[in-house]
Design a protein that fits this description.
The chain has 278 residues and is of the alpha/beta class. 36% of the residues lie in helices and 13% in strands. It has ten helices and ten strands. The strands form two sheets. It has an eight-stranded parallel sheet. α7 packs across α8. The chain is globular, with a radius of gyration of 18 Å. The two termini are 30 Å apart. Bound molecules: NADP nicotinamide-adenine-dinucleotide phosphate (NAP).
Length: 278
Amino acid sequence: MTRLVSFADGTTVPALGQGTWEIGDDPARRDAEQAALSRGIDLGLTLIDTAELYGSGKSERLVGEVIAGRRDEVFLVSKVKPDNASEMKMMLSCEKSLERLGVDRLDLYLLHWSGRVPLDETIAAFEELVDEGMIVRWGVSNLDIRSMNKLEALEGGDACAANQLLYNLGTRGIEYDLLPWLQARDMPMMAYSPLGRGGLLEHPVIVDIADRHDASPAQVALAAVLRHDGVIAIPKASSVEHVEANADALEIQFDIEDIEKLDAAFPPPTSEQPLDII
Ligand code: NAP
């Protein structure tokens, strides 16, 4: 089953994509990781998330090898480190990412987190890359609701296309305010670490619901994230077996009993929470 999420400009992407943190780090795992990413694209998990930070470029290089000859099948996301998010440095960072990825443009370029460079300067640097055709659109990651309001108030800030945030059953704080804020603006929320980095998969309630649906705990964790509108999940899987399982997560339809059990085990927020990040 494919579910699509729309950007404010009308572009659609699959709600389930693929993450790549730590992919490309270990030469012994390279073949398995490439096979997993490639199988994911075959199965429609065509949004690929990477970053200049990951393995100091090794992740982008591996992604580049996987998408060689299939650039048009994928929606490519990379991220600039905060220290490089200035008018002086961003263009060079982006050029290097494009070279490692073997492409001439990114579909989405994100500020990895907010650092010392003022946001208005980062917006200007992003817009220069849009003008040069090196990126189609830009967004942010790890920005809380106060920072999003500040960004939106800056000149050009309303062009921000997405916010990538830590979101899984174990950390639901953004459901209180930031997720509705993003939904109201058709700004997709990219849920990172949707499996809690694997840490959620032995939780007895998740295992129990998985058993009821003849599914796996990872599928339940992903389905729980993806039941909200405007959410894109980017699980990292480094085996074909895992990526095939993840691709079926959208088949799960929770009933009221499932939702009640999940909410009892992982209570939704009832007040504003500080943004959780990794
Ligand atoms: P994650 O996707 O929540 O979890 C990855 C772990 O789950 C790995 O150990 C993986 O094992 C395992 N896994 C995947 N599919 C599975 C399955 N079907 N059954 C059992 N285990 C499974 O963690 P993450 O890598 O932290 O987050 C995902 C992506 O989000 C990253 O790769 C990165 O692209 C992005 N991210 C962004 C930020 C940011 O600051 N913007 C921060 C963190 C992550 P195998 O590897 O063995 O398959």
